[in-house]
Amino acid sequence: MAVEVSRRRFLQGSVAMTVIGGMSMAPSDLFSNEEEHGSQAMTTKTGTGEAKIVPTLCEMCVNKCAALARVENGVVTKLDPNPMFPKSRNMLCPRGNAGIQALYDPDRLKYPMIRVGEKGEGKFKRVSWEEAYDAILNGTDKFPGLAKILDEEKDNRSTIFFCAGEGMAEHTFKTFFNGFGSANWLNHASLCLRTVVSGYGVTLGAYPQADLENAEYIIMAGANRAEAIVTPDTMDFFKRTKGRGAKLICVDPRFTNTAAKADKWLPIKPGTDLAFVLALTYVAIMEELYDKAYVEKYFDGFTQYKNHLYSEGYTPEWAEKITGIPAKDIYEIARDFMKHAPKAVYYPGRRSTFAKNDFQLRRAMAIFQALGGGIDTKGGLVFGKKLPLKPHATVAPMYAQAEGIDVERAKGHPGYSDCAIVSGGGSWIGFRNRVLEGKGLYPIRGMFLYKHNPMMNMPNTKKTAEFLKKLDLIVTIDTMPSDTVMYADVVLPECTYLERTDPVKTFGGPEPSIAVRNKVIDPMYETKPVIEILRGLTEKISKPLFEITKKYDEDVQDDIADRGEEEVYKDFDLTIPFKHSQEELNEHAVSDYPGAAEALKEHGVYYPNMDKWFKKVSVNEHVYYPDDKKAYTVRGGKPKTPSGKVMCNLKNIAKKGVDPMPTWRKEYEYSVPEGKFRMLTGRHAQFTQSGTSNNAMLHDLINENYIWINKRVAKKMGIKFGDMIEVSSEAGSTRLKAYPTEKIAPDQVFFIHGFGEESEELTWAYRSGGNDNAVIKDDIEPVYGAAVMHSTNVEIRKV
Amino acid sequence: MDLQKIIPYKKMSLKELLVPENKLMALIAVVLTTLFLIGVAIYLVHGHHAYAVTREHPWGLLIAMYIFFVVSSTGLCIVGSFGDVFGFKDYMVVSKRAIFGSIITILSGFAVIAFEIGHPVTMMIYNVLSPGLTSAIWWMGTLYGLYLTFMIIEFIFLMRNDMARAKIFGLIGLLVGLAAHSNLGGVFGFLNARVVSNGVFYPTYFILTAFITGIYLIFIMYGYKYRGQPFPDDVAKALTNFMKIQGLLLAILMFFETWKMLTGVYGGMPERADTIIHILHTKSFWLGEVLCGMVIPFLLILKSKGTAIKQMVWASVIGMVGIFYMRYDLVHDTQLFPMQTLKIREYQLPPSFVDYFPSTAEMMIGFGAIGICMILYFIGTKLFDLDHMPEHH
Amino acid sequence: MARYGMALDYKNCINCKACEVACKEENGVLLGADKHRIWVGVKEIEGEYPLLNIASNTFYPSQCQHCDNAPCEEVCPTHATHYDENGVVRVDPNKCILCSYCMNACPYDARYVDDRTMTVDKCNFCSDTRLARGETTTACQATCPTKVRIFGDLDDPNSEISQVLREREHFSLKPHLGTKPKLFYLM
To pair with A291 at 20 to 30 A between CA atoms, which of A245, A546, C3, C131? Predict the structure, then answer.
């Protein structure tokens, strides 16, 4: 109890300091409290007395697992799994457990701040919320505000762009973007799962889930579910591997923890998975192992694809040379997969784009999966069901002066200069590089950034830094003083997920449900949830910005002449979506389900008949839906494409210069020049990218990342465990310690993403290990403009 | 109350008591004691963080020095008992000095262990309130407490020249001391999971090496007292006999060690064989334990056929260095093989033999306690008549 | 009165270390490399790339074995280490003198020093936190993504753990030492 009291007293003390100490604090004190720096007393033993249990949803990664927060004397002492949520199956991973450290991180952003130093220097002044909003609108002597920029740009709203990381309140922020009227929206997709979602989308009509609870044969290629945890996938099949019902084939250049659980591990050459899948498909078709009835009914372009495979000669022998996987293994896997189909899964995965052929790889995977008939069926890939929510009020005014998306069209070609298709989330690297190179259609002058860390999350950090320096106005909404926040002009501190109620969310799948993140404790310091931040901001800027629109927008001028200003302004009133509290909006969203609002408050989870169906069946296991009520099959196997078919041959994308059928090209082949190494990046179960980089508890598990170097190579180079290594490429360099291991190929190196931040305000993350994006080149995938992560060759040397 | 009635001592002023007989030795003693006090101060400020002990290697130099001192005490008790307990007249001359030595060495040992045990006061309370009768440490601690009491009583009777009573308490003290000391061996011998220490070896080895240590210390004490002058006849006679006994004891020790190592390596049993092989590759074993602790003194004894008692004084100093290494190594070797052999972090080397090197504070307290022992000795030799025995008893 | 034990479906373990974090948060374990009550161990992988030995990379989740015949309890001079009424091996910090004998005697490296109390600490099956509140799971069991652990009363023939141990083959760690661990590894 002593520790509890001391922490609480400390927190109260710091609030008191806020009031009394006020403006006299030095800028560096705004970030941290000396008292807790380096202190070991970060954990709090749970008590046996009175406690409040609040159901909430985790935000330590993107999975949104259900948690029960234990609150004692106003202090969150423990996060436990909430067994009632079908998606997270009564579990919390190490990060979920360490959420308390995100809440009580002494380095958290605590107060609104505006920049007083040079851009990127990290010198800020603490201000009130009102002053911060005013700085966004009117600027300071250091930077211009929105009013000046939009006046200069004649109300071209697209000169300000918006970007957000994934999260439950991303939608709230996007509502602001829609009201603001910019055409430029960037999210994490092009740095993440853009190609996999789209590849499956155009081929099967949806990005399906895998029913790993019932699959008997699983090929997991380039996915690492033991370390990159996805719920419920991770929990569903590792209980059945190792001869216990689910055969696992792991295809990965690196020996991962998933490989450790596999029946067979196939070390493939990086970026050659497409050749592997094409050869599997070749065997399945040539040996007529596929589900003929399914193909007959639901395939479009099968014969063309078959002929394509034959004429290109995508045999296992051909693939062996490219992938390094023995032909006999490919034959065996294709036969075993089809034997187990439809209860066989070629796991779609959800990861960054590793190679330029990733879109085609995903298409080939989807087609191979469909050949076994394992679509919309138990044990295969499933579409599942979703419980719909009611939408709420929003504004989407039309600004005549706002130009379209800033994408340069390629001369003489049907597509754009850097990628064929521009999706909703844009191409981050393409956008950044165009601004840097001055190739934009109009100036890009400012950005609003929510829960996003471009300095850490996209290849070629040097370019990102230059890009950020080039922008006139950067407004960040974040919880941590990340490397990107250091470049901000205005910093708006958001509270952590345990201090806010977020928009209620519906989760589809065979066992659909609705879940909510309930506020566990009141926001600490002067932080606010994003909805309240935007409420304050829009109240400040809505009217003045409308004045600028009035000045330049002839349509609006005409409209006002017709209807009067008051009426017209109603369409332009940015405050409308943020008028209600999140709790009210949530109640409205689930108002079609009787009892849902109450259940969400009490249990954090709701689905129809939950009170009847949810049962504990053993000390660890729960049943959510009776077997016959699970939505494994919702369309009788019919794909969700507009044609209702599996699209083998996409003629319309051929017009944009994209291969209509998955095709291997010579340039996809893997090669590394003598003396260099192919740089691989990836995940670890203990960290979520850079989002958890300063978590004291997780640093207790992995203090810094190490570079994996093959043991024999390291020995030859005189490198021992823990030696400092400089990794460099044409993009830049970084330093981290050596980890000689046989788990990686002699011509490859690997280190986990999310380490090596440069922000000095991060006690634990500051320069702990190396930053992969300082080294990875900014190669772009040609279809969606996604960042290619595994195409960089690097040099290493001991320093 | 007249202290003189309880224990006869030489009357002198405080100044007389404190003026050193040998300035160099006094300086060494004071410097070491100061280091001890500084080490204790560091410990009081930083707690166990001042020590280099870890989860994998919880016992360090302080345990080794404690053992060093209590083995010395037991050894001197055995040596002293020859005369006053068993009545061998030739050895009577050393009894008082040896028994006095056994008291001050164990006090020095207690001074060290007081700062190794995290909560010595708690220990005194709960040793009595909830005794752990299956614990070798409980028995060792309790018996050493009793042993010290009996040794003090024996010493009082010796000072009073009441040889009959001295003999009774000496015998009880000796038996309790041997029991305590073999229990100290048992502290290690009972560690079933620590295969190089587990078993009968250490309890017996401790008694044997205690005897050897006692003889080394007798040589050092008399060598110092009669520095630059010949030994008196009675002392020379006792020392010559002890030197010959020492030859026999060292031979037995070498025989023991040889078989311990041979049986340890034989058959290549996991944990045991690799640990023994690791030990056989260390300098502290060969140079410290074997060369200093056994071979040099043994060669001198052989070469002179047990007569070079003046040279044996220096060989004993070297021998005590060897004894230190035996204590240090036995503590370290016990913990060499890790109990966690799996990697529990991705970024670590697979666990192998556990490293340990004492911290400055540990060295200050551990070696500084030698200064305490020296000061007690110098004061004791001034206060008490440690040489003259009654002619008949 | 019970006799608590734990069965580990260790093949489920993916070495994510959720158990370690849950344990630290529940029990207020200090941060620091050698401060842990629970861990997942793995051998250095055998073989040379690409011919690696998958089986050599098995994950072994572990913690205090709560031996029925615990060496740590036997060697404790003050009975600070004791069996509680549920057969759980506990340390009474008021009696612990930090002689560290138990740390040396434990064959499983399950003990560490808590720097706040300067006494030896260890896994206690969440006896003074969760079990004291009437809960029936330990923090490590509740949080585990792949549900490695089954905690329960070995004296109750109807408990799930008793049933599992009757039906499935299992082994214990270092059984030759006669410590009679109450952690059982299910095969």
Answer: A245
Burial (CB count within 10 angstroms: exposed 0-12, middle 13-18, buried 19+), residue A50:
exposed
Spatial CB neighbours of A327, under 8 Å, sequence gap ≥ 6: A279, A315, A316, A317, A319, A320
Indicate whether C24 pLDDT > 90. yes
CA-to-CA distance for A742 and C53, rounded, in angstroms? 10
Residue B9 falls inside a structural domain: no
Instruction: Compute the distance between CA of residue C156 and CA of residue A578 in angstroms, rounded to an integer.
Output: 57
Q: Which amino acid is at A189?
A: A
Question: How does pLDDT run across A193-222, given as a tens digit for each residue?
Answer: 999 999 999 999 999 999 999 999 999 999
CB–CB of A501/A469 below 8 Å? Answer: no
- Span of A299-303, A413-417, B28-32, B185-189 with lowest mean pLDDT: A413-417
Partner residues linked to A476 by β-bridges:
A449, A491
Q: What are the tens digits of pLDDT across the range A580-622? A: 999 999 999 999 999 999 999 999 999 999 999 999 999 999 9
Q: Is A743 on the interface with B (CB under 8 A)?
A: no
Split at pLDDT 50, 70, 90, the class of A1 is very low
* CB B272 within 8 Å of CB B196: yes
Q: Is the per-residue pLDDT at A12 higher than 70?
A: no
Alpha helices in chain B (DSSP H): 3-6, 14-18, 23-46, 61-84, 92-113, 120-129, 136-159, 163-189, 201-225, 233-265, 272-280, 283, 296-303, 309-336, 360-383
- Subunits touching B (CB < 8 Å, at least 3 pairs)? A, C
B346–chain A Cβ distance below 8 A for any pair: yes
Domain-embedded: residue B5: no
Residue B386 is assigned to a structural domain of this protein: no
Residues 110-129 of C with CB under 8 A from A: 115-116, 128-129
Can you read off the two tokens belonging to residue C90? 């506990």
Q: For A636-660, what is the mean pLDDT?
A: 94
User: If pLDDT is split at 50, 70 and 90, which confidence band does B389 have?
Assistant: confident
Number of domains into which chain B is organized: 1
In a domain, B7, yes or no: no
Chain C contact set for A91 (CB, 8 A):
18, 143-145, 147
* Torsion, CA A7, CA A12, CA A13, CA A16, rounded to 10: 170
With beta carbons less than 8 A apart as the criterion, state whether A76 and A521 touch: yes
* pLDDT at site A36: 36
How many CA atoms, within 13 angstroms, populate the side-chain half-sphere of residue A794? Answer: 33
The residue that leads in pLDDT, B247 or B2, is: B247
Q: DSSP class of residue B349?
A: P
Hey, of A720, A739, A768, which one would you mutate to test binding to chain B, going by the most B CBs within 10 A of its CB?
Answer: A739
Q: Is C78–B350 a contact, with Cβ atoms under 8 angstroms apart?
A: no
Domains of chain A listed by start with CATH number: 2-103 (2.20.25.90), 113-192+396-494+529-554 (3.40.50.740), 195-384+635-654 (3.40.228.10), 586-627 (no CATH), 670-798 (2.40.40.20)
The model's pTM: 0.93
**Which of C42, C75, C111 lies closest to B343 in CB terms?**
C42
Query: What is the spatial distance between Cα A730 and Cα C58, in angstroms, rounded to a whole number?
Result: 39
Question: Does residue A626 have a cis peptide bond before it, meaning omega lies within 30 degrees of 0?
Answer: no
Interchain pair C11, A227: CB under 8 A: no
> Tell me, what amino acid is at B336?
L
pLDDT tier at A34 (50, 70, 90 boundaries)? very low
Average the pLDDT over A416-426 and give the result: 84
* E runs forming strands in A366-418: 381-382
**How many C-beta atoms lie closer than 10 Å to residue A470's C-beta?**
15
Query: Domain range holding B124?
Result: 52-336+351-358
CATH code, B322: 1.20.1630.10
